[in-house]
Amino acid sequence: MLRKFHSLPGLLAGVFLIVLSVTGAVLALAPTLDRVSAVIPASGEVSIAELADRVVAHYPGTEQIVREPSGKVIVYYSRDGQAGADLVNPVTGEGTPYEPSAFFGWIKDLHRAFMLDDAGRALAGVLAVLMVLLCLSGIFLIARRTGGWKNILRPLSGSGGKRIHAELARFAVLGLLLSALTGSYMSAQRFGLLAEAPDTGPRFPAEVSGGQPSPVGTLKALGNFDLGELRELVFPYPGDPQDAYSLSTAGGSGFVDQATGELLQFEPRSDSGVLQDWIVRLHTGEGLWWLGLILGAAALTVPALSITGATIWWQRRRSSGQLPDNADAAQADTIILVGSEGNATWGFARELHSSLNKAGFRVHCSEMNALAKQYPQASRLFVLTSTYGDGDAPASARQFMARLKEFRAEKNLRYTVLGFGDRQFPSYCQFALEVDAVLARKGMNRLLAIELIDRCSAAQFSEWGSRVGELIGLPLLLNYKALHPATVKLELVERADYGIAVQAPTSIFRFKLAEQGGWPRVFPRRFKALPPFEAGDLVGVMPPDGQAPRFYSLASSASDGIVEICVRKQPGGLCSGYLHDLKPGACIDGFIRPNPGFRPATGSQPVILIGAGAGIGPLTGFIRKNTRRNPMYLYWGGRDSSSDFLYQPELGRYLDDHRLSALNTAFSRADERTYVQDRLKQDELAVQQMVSTGAQILVCGGRDMAAAVRQVIGDILKPLHIDIETLRGQGRYLEDVY
Ligand SMILES: Cc1cc2nc3c(=O)[nH]c(=O)nc-3n(C[C@H](O)[C@H](O)[C@H](O)COP(=O)(O)O)c2cc1C
């Protein structure tokens, strides 16, 4: 909901917001340019009387002197019956012709009203309010993403457009909020929704001395005010002894007797007037050039925020498949909730949704994170979810358990859970099992007992559909067709083999894109064979027998020009065996699957990389990319340094050039027999110190190693009163476990 609340106004207003922000950024430069060109005497150096004296000496026909918030002094005068305006040097009284910038004037019109008068002004006002909503919902989204308000400045995880969007938003949000709030206020005043400060000022004095006018430089009241306080000084009508000087200063306004120099009827500025002045200054940066620059920099992020925001929205819409005829949650009689990380489960959900729709049900389908507080019309709830990590919730279901606390199930709502997983994982469909149990504990009744689908089996899914069909009283034919992303041919160019002597055959495979035939060859740019990828993303490898793809973590990124993976040959492993039999020149079919949840954070906080065996692949990829030399520490465990010390020469080079700050290895078949968790224990104090300064921990490797590391890190963190779950919530404990 919060996300929708954030993305809808953004999408609607994107283009106008870009115009508003770019023009705002240009206007924000004006106070600085004015400040640079203005001559500003030190406080106490020139009084208003002295200024007026100098100005009158050069401009005998002076009618008005105005001091702008930037410090610029302008004199309005008449000479030989002609009106003129000059910019004045307050120290000498000399002036140069004053011509307001036509360019800034044009930009101001565009900014205030899109060149459309009142309709444009109203639109600008609405946009300012939308911007306030975007900023507020954005702040909440960032807090949610970083694991709470107190972590809001912590490094962000993730990559690509999402990361850029969140980082830029965090940098700019306060500036944007200030501009939007003050802009909304000014607009509301303009359209009479808020009262404007009355612009009356004091009445003209009932009595003036009417004596012989004294030279302006000798008038006592004007001598008492510093030039810095001046807003405007209007001269008396020449030859009229009953007229007086009208003076407006930062503190108020009044009149000055032109003969006695006495201050008459002075009224301090009202509170509403002071507030209005501040609103204008905070919006424009007038008189606060440094604020203008901050607001301008914040405004410049809006085009990038709009583009990345639209891209995120589009990707989310595409990945959740935007189901046609998706009923409203409040009207639906059937609800399908989907937990998915890699989108495979969405394919099954779509098939179920379309079959039930065809059968005449009103079906609402959404991600599990979007669980509503209640479904008033629904009598069936289907939960389809995969399991990720080591028995964990997939991305689109991570907030499900928390949201479930607020969920009120109607009495007649019956549910069934369908788990998607892979039997090779010991925590097979663990998350689905947990969801099933927790729904039962909430007192809900099952429509059908939980069932588990192994490796996206279409046959199992179809059988489950028949059973559901029997229960709801109509034949439900679920015909799921797997949609694998288009694969490309990857040619093995190099392999380095390790670990054979210690019964842990592990190889580093480097592939390049094989020569493409057909259209890709003619239009290589249009047919970009592989999407951009980073170390830590996954490459899906199609085994030769047409079975479901197997996924391996990438050790390289697209800019390396190769697809590099590190694979241990599993006893009886179909795909790992296939890869280990490959010789240079052989080709495989593969595709990239992004894995943005496993990336080192940007920023200068330390990164602790922990892995064992082939898990070193993506960790080495992260170090290879650490060209900014942020502190990175690697703890890695193998069997024997003489046989399976993967990436040894490369890691040595990274130590020398400081991409890697320290390397701690542990070998389980060496004389000392140590494991990576032992090394962590030995470095307890250093780990505590790094975590307390904001370090992020990334673990990659087998489940047993990851469990042992979790145990040890949990113990190490106890004195800091931080647990792993808290770090996870902050994106500071990431695992890629297989
Ligand atoms: C990194 C990774 C971790 C996984 N962990 C588990 C697991 O712990 N238990 C399980 O049953 N399946 C696990 N799986 C298998 C997925 O649940 C399975 O492939 C599922 O069909 C993915 O569906 P999705 O693409 O909708 O997320 C894992 C898959 C990957 C790539």
TrEMBL record:
One Pfam family, short name: PepSY_TM
What Gene3D superfamilies does its record include? 3.40.50.360, Nucleotide-binding domain of ferredoxin-NADP reductase (FNR) module, Translation factors
Gene Ontology molecular-function annotations: flavin adenine dinucleotide binding; FMN binding; oxidoreductase activity, acting on NAD(P)H, quinone or similar compound as acceptor; sulfite reductase (NADPH) activity
Task: Tell me what organism the protein belongs to.
Answer: Marinobacter vinifirmus
Q: Please provide the record's keywords in A-Z order.
A: Electron transport, Flavoprotein, FMN, Membrane, Transmembrane, Transmembrane helix, Transport
Q: What superkingdom does the record give?
A: Bacteria
Q: Its GO CC terms?
A: cytosol
Q: Does the keyword Transmembrane apply?
A: yes
Cited PROSITE patterns: FAD_FR, FLAVODOXIN_LIKE
Q: Which residues cross the membrane?
A: 122-143, 288-314
- The signal peptide stretch is none
Q: Which InterPro entries match?
A: FAD-bd_FR_type, Flavdoxin-like, Flavodoxin/NO_synth, Flavoprot_Pyr_Nucl_cyt_Rdtase, Flavoprotein-like_sf, FNR_nucleotide-bd, OxRdtase_FAD/NAD-bd, PepSY-ass_TM
Stated name of the protein: Nitric oxide synthase
Task: Enumerate the spans annotated as FAD-binding FR-type domain.
Answer: 485-601
- Domain Flavodoxin-like: start-end pairs: 334-469
